[in-house]
Design brief:
The chain is an alpha+beta fold. It has four domains: 640 residues, no CATH class; 126 residues, CalX-beta domain (Immunoglobulin-like), CATH 2.60.40; 99 residues, CalX-beta domain (Immunoglobulin-like, Sandwich), CATH 2.60.40.2030; 75 residues, no CATH class. 51% of the residues lie in helices and 15% in strands. The protein has 28 helices and 28 strands. The strands form eight sheets. Strands 6, 8, 9, 11, 12 and 14 form a six-stranded mixed β-sheet that branches. Strands 16, 18, 19, 21, 22 and 24 form a six-stranded mixed β-sheet that branches. The radius of gyration is 42 Å and the shape is elongated. Keywords: Antiport, Calcium, Calcium transport, Calmodulin-binding, Cell membrane, Glycoprotein, Ion transport, Membrane, Metal-binding, Repeat, Signal, Sodium, Sodium transport, Transmembrane, Transmembrane helix, Transport. One of its GO terms (molecular function) is calmodulin binding. It catalyses: Ca(2+)(in) + 3 Na(+)(out) = Ca(2+)(out) + 3 Na(+)(in). Its main location: membrane.
Length: 989
């Protein structure tokens, strides 16, 4: 039952014209030729077409013959419309690629480095009214032009009436379907209401203008200036819509307080402020606050809004699936973000067509291909790694920090990779830095030999320990002159054996040895005055280093303080003490970082060290004094006489330590100027030198930055969400594979069953093609293979596909024009009625599917409603403007005029204009508080709105058909006589 429901739902728009045609054909049989209808009208369209000749004989046929021919033509035309939908799919793909071209904008940020942002070159409104409108309405526009050329630049009824009929179906039926498609618990509002007002005004004016040039300025005649001016309204439409989109008038000419109002003429201004305040991006005064971006650039502003939506979607997925496998999480996240992200009308048009013909979900198919490419890249990287046959020699590790009293220590040299059975030799030598060979360390020089089974070798270095206070020093140990020894005992240069070296010295090829002086209590400092923490790290460990000695136990207080970062919100406040034991050279302070998952973040706080507390001051002072005296004695070359004159050295040291201890216990000062009276100046220097103190960086700033992994995921989502990547193709091979592959269509409800994965998360089961998908695929295979010959969208930036596609659309449109006119011959329908019903519906079915999907998936109603009004105006300005200008110029060149019978077309335009104003009024009124938006809302309002719009369309079709068959004739007699008199005046002149 569900499958039947879905199949009927897909086919219901296609069944509508069949029912309508049966009714009209039945009515046409009851019409008798009267004073206003000629009997020749019945066979007026029984002529050879531009490409397709008439099926002869075509006169005096029986009812059975006409029914059979009509049925055959109906099936053929329906199949031709299917082909147009498929080639329009390729055409819209090329337009999406063209309009998705991007540029890089450099945004200056106060106090930070400039940020590069990638934005689209094409403005969305401009692309929707130019290439997008041309793509969605190409059959109607080309039909109007081709019909004029086929009739030797004489006016026909099929092209212009198709444009008017298609506009009526788009405005009434498509919007009615979209209103009902949105669930009753949801609403869809237009975000760019000012652009909608502009395009709606132009769409109504287009048909008013069409009536004026047909029946007012020069009744029955189209002059060159009228055709040119009709075409000139097209760029004016685009320009005014662009001005409304970027809000030049509001920003430069309207008072500030008026622009701030949420209930004034600029309705979207207030709505945007509400949305921004909800996201914390408004300052409360009606102005948009975009972090670190140039708010005057609409492209940058749109990019930031798009990026924030991605971030919120990513957080939601992580909350719902905390234990999902990372690969599956990324795949689901990409699909969810693309599905919810803003898409163009081209995307929805292509998606609708491919679902209809069994092409599957283009988003899922493309994402699967991208993930397969990533997997292939990983496998290739692993294969390259496995092929590595080079032996690498390096220091492991490359930095050593040792105490001066360490004696002898080992430096490790590592070996990795390379062919089996290889013996490698490498020389090493030391080099002075700030440390001097001989006085600070014993220099070494030699050769290391790595036998085939060796992975590590060690180099022993002796450190010279003295009692002289000095700054920390360092020296270097280098590797050089790598050689390999063969099994035959030959020693060779590894770089000269074959193309790839069998062995090489790899970075790090130099080891740094830092010697810490152990004759001081130490200087305590951070490594730098500024640190960065990634918000996703959980915590940051800040290193406090002890330099210039490590003698004794020292306690260092520390505490955090707020900057722009607030404790408890951005980081975890901490206060405590670090304890440095004797000979300990470093300690770490761990601070918790709170992850807020922001795309860009620059919150900072401070960490500060307090004055050091020396836990073993007296013993260290005595030792430092003793070493100081020994240093002085070495310099003088004799034992100090001052100590001998006073008393025994050991007794003196004991007494001095006791006095110092008493003085320190009674004096908390750090100044030694008031030390015990019997301390000499040298002894005061010793006490000052031995005291622990804070170094240069006693306070540091910690800045919390955004997670690069999270940022890269968002950037990848933004790149993946470019729908041109979903619609584009890169090769003919890919196009032919897609043409022969049947994929499952994606239902709007997306009721896929889920299974529980091992990690406890829900994983969607892959969808299988339905019977409908297989039927439509096999019906469309000839068309798919034919249009797979169109150049891929990557060629010439999509323009090659654009040109070839529009040529094929023109060819099919010419065939449809001939077949539709001859179809009317067999069933007794006039071209005007065939155009506003069958042909108009056939060209609008893909747009119907696209608009329905856009109404359900988009957050706003712009893609469903705004594009309808925009394309309706563009159809007249391009389709009729170009065709009638060509015809008017042709007739002027040959010395005559271009006649157009205004009767049926003028009446149809008048009815449509009146109903269009009513329809647009209802759409705007639905924005009130009772409903809340143009689409969706309570069931009763949905039914009333959709039913009313359907009635408007049926009324338009009914009265236009009745007028064509002379049921509504009397009101047009005056217009007809006026036209005939005008013809006579022209002939006389």
């Amino acid at each position: 039952v569900f499958q039947l429901k879905m199949t009927f739902g897909r086919l219901s728009p296609c069944l509508m014209p069949i029912v309508l045609l049966v009714i009209i054909i039945y009515l046409s049989k009851t019409v008798e030729a009267g004073t206003n209808c000629s009997a020749a009208d019945a066979t007026r369209n029984c002529i050879d077409g531009l490409i397709v000749p008439i099926w002869r004989p075509f006169l005096d046929l029986t009812t059975e013959d006409r029914f059979l021919r009509g049925t055959i033509y109906f099936v053929v035309i329906a199949y031709m419309f299917l082909g147009v939908s498929i080639v329009a799919d390729r055409f819209m793909s090329s337009i999406e690629v063209i309009t998705s071209m991007e540029r890089t904008v450099v945004v200056k940020r106060p106090g930070l480095e400039p940020m590069k942002v990638t934005v689209r070159i094409w403005n969305d409104t401009v692309s929707n009214l130019t290439l997008m409108a041309l793509g969605s309405s190409a059959p109607e526009i080309l039909l109007s032009i081709i019909e004029v050329v086929a009739r030797k630049f004489e006016a026909g009824d099929l092209g212009p009436n198709t444009i008017v009929g298609s506009a009526a179906f788009n405005l009434f039926m498509i919007i009615a379907i979209c209103v009902s498609a949105v669930p009753s618990t949801e609403i869809r509002r237009q975000k760019h209401l000012d652009v909608f007002f502009v395009t709606a005004t132009w769409s109504v004016f287009a048909y008013i203008w069409l009536y004026l040039i047909l029946s007012f300025f020069s009744p029955g005649v189209i002059e060159i200036w009228e055709g040119l001016l009709t075409f000139a309204f097209f760029p004016l439409t685009v320009l005014t819509a662009y001005i409304a989109d970027i809000k030049i008038i509001q920003r430069r000419f309207l008072p500030r307080k008026y622009r701030r109002s949420s209930h004034g003429m600029i309705v979207t201004e207030g709505e945007e402020m509400k949305m921004l305040e909800g996201n914390g991006l408004s300052d409360g005064n009606g102005y948009k606050m975009i972090p670190y971006t140039d708010a005057s650039d609409p492209a940058v502003k749109a990019f930031e809004e798009h990026r924030r939506e991605f971030i919120e979607t990513m957080r939601e997925i992580r909350r719902k699936n905390p234990h999902i496998d990372p690969v599956e999480l990324q795949k689901q996240a990409e699909y969810e973000m693309i599905s919810k992200g803003p898409k163009t009308r081209a995307f929805y048009r292509v998606q609708a067509t491919r679902r209809l013909i069994g092409g599957g979900d283009i988003v899922k198919k493309r994402l699967d291909k991208e993930h397969d490419k990533n997997l292939d890249a990983i496998i290739q990287a692993q294969e390259r790694q496995a092929r590595q046959n080079t032996c690498r020699i390096f220091f492991d590790p490359a930095h050593y920090t040792i105490l001066e009293n360490v004696g002898t220590f080992d430096v490790v040299v590592g070996r990795d990779g390379g062919p089996e059975g290889l013996t490698v030799m490498v020389d090493y030598y030391t080099e002075d830095g700030t440390a001097n060979s001989g006085s600070d360390y014993i220099p070494v020089k030699g050769t290391l030999t790595f036998y085939p089974e060796d992975k590590h070798q060690r180099i022993s270095i002796e450190i010279v320990d003295d009692d002289v206070f000095e700054e920390d020093e360092h020296f270097y140990l280098h590797l050089k002159n790598l050689r390999v020894r063969t099994k035959d005992g030959l020693i060779l240069d590894p770089t000269r054996i074959g193309g790839i070296p069998v062995a090489q010295i790899e970075t790090p090829a130099t080891a740094t040895i830092m010697i810490l002086d152990d004759d001081h209590a130490g200087v305590y400092s951070f490594e730098h005055d500024h640190f960065q923490a990634i918000e996703s790290c959980g915590h940051i460990s800040v290193r406090v280093q002890r330099t210039s000695g490590c003698r004794g136990k020292v306690i260092i207080p520390y505490k955090t303080s707020d900057g722009t970062g607030i404790s408890g919100k951005h980081y975890e406040a901490k206060e405590g003490e670090l304890v440095f034991e004797d000979n300990q050279t470093e300690a770490f302070i761990e601070i918790g970082i709170i992850d807020t998952e922001q795309y860009e973040r620059s919150d900072y706080f401070f960490l500060e060290l307090g004055p050091p507390i020396w836990a073993k001051k007296m013993s260290d002072l005595a030792k430092i004094q003793e070493r100081f005296h020994r240093r002085m004695e070495r310099k003088r070359g004799s034992v100090s006489s001052s100590v001998e004159d006073k008393e025994d050295n050991e007794t003196y040291q004991h007494r001095l330590a006791k006095k110092l201890e008493e003085w320190f216990s009674n004096n908390k000062k750090e100044d030694f100027s008031e030390a015990p009276y019997d301390l000499t100046q040298d002894q005061l220097e010793i006490a000052e030198l031995g005291k622990p103190r804070l170094g240069e960086f006693r306070k540091c700033q910690i800045t919390i930055k955004e997670s690069k992994e999270f940022q890269s995921v968002v950037d990848r989502m933004l790149k993946t969400a470019n729908t041109s990547l979903m619609l584009g193709t890169s090769s003919w091979r890919e196009q032919f594979i897609d043409a022969l592959t049947v994929s499952a269509g994606d239902d709007d409800d997306d009721d896929n069953d889920d299974i529980e994965s091992k990690s406890g998360s829900a994983v969607s089961l892959p969808k299988q093609p339905t019977t409908f998908d297989y039927v439509m695929h096999f019906l469309c295979v000839p068309w798919k293979l034919t249009f797979a010959t169109i150049p891929p969208t990557e060629y010439w930036g999509g323009w090659a596909c654009f040109v070839v596609s529009i040529f094929m659309i023109g060819l099919l449109t010419a065939l449809i024009g001939d077949l539709a006119s001859q179809f009317g011959c067999w069933v007794g329908l006039k071209d005007a009625v065939t155009a506003i019903t069958f042909v108009a519906l056939g060209t609008s079915v893909p747009d119907t599917f696209a608009s329905k999907v856009a109404a359900i998936q988009d957050k706003y109603a712009d893609s469903s409603i705004g594009n309808v009004t925009g394309s309706n105006g563009v159809n007249v300005f391009l389709g009729i403007g170009i065709a009638w200008t060509m015809a008017a110029v042709y007739h002027w060149y040959h010395g005559n005029v271009f006649y157009v019978n205004p009767g049926t077309l003028a009446f149809s335009v008048t009815v449509f204009c009146i109903e269009a104003v009513i329809c647009i009024t209802v759409i705007v009124l639905r924005r009130n508080k009772a409903i809340g938006g143009e689409l969706g809302g309570p069931v009763k309002y949905k039914v009333l709105t959709s039913g009313f719009f359907v009635c408007l369309w049926l009324f338009y079709i009914g009265v236009s058909s009745l007028e064509s068959y002379c049921y509504i004739a009397e009101p047009l007699i005056i217009l007809k006589k006026k036209t005939e008199n005008h013809y006579k005046n022209i002939c006389c002149d």
